[in-house]
Amino acid sequence: MLISFALACNTAILLMDEPSNGLDIMSKSQFRKVIAGAIDENKCIIISTHQVKDLESLIDRITIIDEGKILFDQTIETISSKLSFKVSFDDEETKAAFYKEEALKGNVIVGKNDTGEDSKIDLELLYKAIVTNGDDVNTVFKNQP
User: Coiled-coil regions in this chain (predicted)?
Assistant: First the structure.
């Protein structure tokens, strides 16, 4: 009900904190549809969440803030072009990654995108890469056009 009220106010800036918490699968889907329908050029919706998977189709910019300090701030498009998110069996590639995590089928890694192909972003892996190795990750975005 509060989400409906917030959207009905039609404010230029709307801040939501964990809006999908407590919603079931169908309600989350409906929430995404409502938010997508409310977005336009004159409106900024800022969503603070730990449930990134619930909202990844709505996000156009990622900002990671820790204790008032901005650790990372980039558009989805830029992240996708500069970083690679994939499963790797290559030891050298895994060693060079900004972040790696063992998985059943190799290592899931966040690395520099050297091929220039857009990569599907894994928001949870991106967050872990920033928190554990943010300075190195951010060097990829320095001097960007």
Answer: none
Residues 83-125: pLDDT tens digits?
A: 999 999 999 999 999 999 998 888 999 999 988 888 889 999 9
- Structural domain boundaries enclosing 101: 73-139
Q: Count the domains in the chain.
A: 2
pLDDT tens per residue across span 59-77:
889 999 988 999 999 999 9
CA distances from 131 to 3, 26, 39, 114, 135 (A): 30, 32, 29, 22, 9
Is residue 145 situated within a structural domain? Answer: no
Q: Is residue 55 in some structural domain?
A: yes
| E-strand stretches of the chain | 13-17, 44-48, 61-66, 69-75, 83-88, 99-103, 106-112
